[in-house]
Design brief:
about 35% helix, alpha+beta
Length: about 100
Amino acid sequence: MSQHAWILELRPGYEDEYQKRHDEVWPEVVSETRAAGIRNYSIFRHGLTLVGYFETDDLERSIRMLNDGEANRRWDEYMAPIMKVEVDPSTNFPFLLPLIWRMEE
């Protein structure tokens, strides 16, 4: 199992809309994300900064499946107007943060 995090940014004034859209996240997006092997996925917000965290057993497979997923493609298009997304061109996925330290149970 590997752990991963990303940072993205909301456009000013869209904080409530971002929350609303995630309160109503499409079931097919959740299904595709689970099918891609993503688990324990969380998103945190501090002002306009979003921090995502997830776990997977095979990062390359997970990214490939998310990039190929129809629901995730539509979700990305739906969210694009309210977010600033910086994508790693080598993965077509948000830049992932390096894990520096982890405290086990």
